[in-house]
Structure of NAD(P)H-dependent FMN reductase:
Amino acid sequence: MKLVALVGSLQKESKSTKGLRVAAEAARQAGAEVIEWSLREQPLPIYDPESEKSGENVEAFIKAMSEADGFLIASPEYHNGPSGVLKNALDFVGYNQFAGKPVGLVAAAGGPIATNTLGQLATILRSLHGYVIPQQGSIGYGDAFNEDGSFQNPKMQERFEKIGTDVVALVKGLRG
């Protein structure tokens, strides 16, 4: 089973990336191969629907998303919504990549919670026929991480690990 962990932040060590990595490690421990796609490390051009879906990183991105059995997606919250770079990346893919596949969502806010971003991402991914799992992760400005990348708050650690394991469990369940 293969999952793509899509990092929708351009910051080197963003909280959304750290939270996503907690979920991704739990998914690995549950038996998934997790491929991290960082839009900082592997950027995509601005999506143009009249242009061919080719160019630097575009074909590899579409291939990785197409081959995935499920997804973990993270975004910082900018102006009460997902990052532009993440929305741009999602414009390159569609039903062919997401239909019938589980998706776990993580977001980090500059304030206490990132529910607007999580809600908007859930709407986008449901419109692509992805199965957004109920457990979502919101990282607030007060949440902190240990040096090893785990959350300082054990309840947050458990919540984000559950996102990873729930995606794996749903992939297995859908496979029969």
DSSP finds six helices and six strands in the chain. The mean pLDDT is 96. The two ends are 13 Å apart (CA to CA).
